């Protein structure tokens, strides 16, 4: 698989990406499996991981500014 930004190889890695749910809230997902470009900082989430992230984000209170969620699947 190739990066759609720069065309370099994409690898499956575990990382802790901060994902912003709205203006107030940033969620850091610990140990999340992502597909990361080895050249630029672009990364993709597989559909199943994306669905898990969406579900986890919905459980975060809107008043929370920073939440850390460990990926467990
Ligand atoms: Zn790239």
Compact overview of the structure:
Helix content is 16%, strand content 37%. The protein is an alpha+beta fold.
What report would you give on this structure?
The protein is α+β, with helices and mostly antiparallel strands. It has one domain. It contains one helix and six strands, in the order βββββαβ. A three-stranded antiparallel sheet has the order 1-4-5, with no helix packed on it. The structure holds zinc ion. The site of zinc ion has 8 residues, from loops.
- Mean pLDDT value: 92
Ligands, deduplicated: zinc ion
Secondary structure tally: strands: 6
SSE string: EEEEEHE
Q: Please give the largest β-sheet.
A: 3 strands, antiparallel
Number of helical segments with 4 or more residues: 1
Helical content (DSSP H or I, runs of 4+)? 10-25%
What's the domain count? 1
Question: Cα-atom Rg, whole angstroms?
Answer: 13 Å
* Structural class assignment: alpha+beta
What is the spatial order of strands in the main beta sheet? Answer: 1-4-5
* % residues in beta strands: 35-45%
Cα end-to-end separation:
23 Å
